[in-house]
Amino acid sequence: MAVNRPKPLVAGNWKMNGLKAAKKELASLVKGVAGAKSKPGCDIMICPPATILSLCSDTVKGSGIKLGGQDCHAEASGAHTGDLSAEMLKNAGARACIVGHSERRTDHCESSLEVKLKAEAAHRAGLMAIICLGETADERSSGKTIKIVGQQLKASLAESANHKNTVIAYEPVWAIGTGNTPTVADIAKVHGYIRKRLIALLGDETGAKTRILYGGSVKPSNAKELMDIDNVNGALVGGASLKAKDFLGIITAY
Ligand code: PEP
Q1: How far is the CA of 135 from the centre of ligand 1 (A)?
Q2: How many angstroms does the Cα of residue 204 sit away from the middle of ligand 1?
Q3: Closest Cα to atom 8, ligand 1: which residue?
Q4: How many domains does the chain have?
Q5: Is 108 a catalytic residue?
């Protein structure tokens, strides 16, 4: 690993999957990580549904595996039926929170300004914000990838962002859950651009140290190739994080 490369993070996003019984799968992951021939060279995180965060928190205790939430409200508390604050997630065992996932941007019409407020809420609660960005298939085919990613990054980044409390996840919307991934050259281009913008927005040191994850159809068979790309500092994994065996296969890319 190059001296100045940030320690990679592999985070699993379970989305709306996981009943109490999912604890077993998480326990297999804990066992797999503990029994690995060599200590994984990355930080490991699982973002389960909030309903089982506390349960998962007991399962990962002492394992080094961290937990995250999948979304949070911008306020700390109040009359927001059905919502969860960053403080509540922290209280249930989360150390981080995904914000701005494309499924939230699409299903709940979340704007980058809302994403930024959620990232600030995560920081207020002492959580790391994992800010998701990415272009749709139409935006890609009309050559707007860089423009869209640049706009989302600038507008979604919290004022309070630094390399310890913020991770960027580049997730092309068309690659999520489809089995399709961009080419190595395309990922290198977008991540290189995000790095340049982070340096411009946060300064040389913080910009260089902020982790940029790739997300979209990462699986054990393509993890090594994707994780070796310049400025790819880990992965945000959906489907392949649901099975301990698959997720372990991705972690071992490090
Ligand atoms: C995601 O939704 O964050 C994701 C990357 O999903 P998948 O790995 O299933 O494409």
Answers
A1: 14
A2: 30
A3: 238
A4: 1
A5: no
Report the nearest atom of ligand 1 relative to the CA of 215: 5
Cβ–ligand 1 contact at 218 (below 6 Å)? yes
Tens of pLDDT, residue by residue over 26-52, are 999 999 999 988 889 999 999 999 999
239 lines ligand 1 (CB under 6 A): yes
Question: pTM for the whole thing?
Answer: 0.97
- CA–CA distance, 235 with 213 (Å, rounded to integer): 5
Per-residue CA distances from 142 to 138, 146, 174, 187 (Å): 6, 11, 14, 17
- Give mean pLDDT, residues 54-69: 98
What is the gyration radius of the CA atoms in the chain, in angstroms? 17
**From the CB of 236, is ligand 1 less than 6 Å away?**
yes
Mean pLDDT for the chain? 96
Residue 24 lies in a domain: no
Give the domain CATH number at 204: 3.20.20.70
User: What is the Å distance from ligand 1's center to 37 Cα?
Assistant: 27
What DSSP line would sit under 200-238, residue for residue? Answer: HHH-HHHHHHSEEEEESS--HHHHHHHHTSTT--EEEES
What are the CA-CA distances from residue 121 to residues 36, 61, 78, 84, 89 (Å)? 36, 25, 14, 11, 11
Return d(Cα 230, Cα 1) in angstroms, integer: 11
- How does 63-99 read in b/e, with b if 16+ C-beta sit within 10 Å? eebbbbbbbbbbeeeeeeeeebbbbbbbebbbbbbbb
- Expressed as residue numbers, the domain containing 144 is 9-18+42-251
Judged against a pLDDT cut of 90, whether residue 4 lies above it is answered with: no
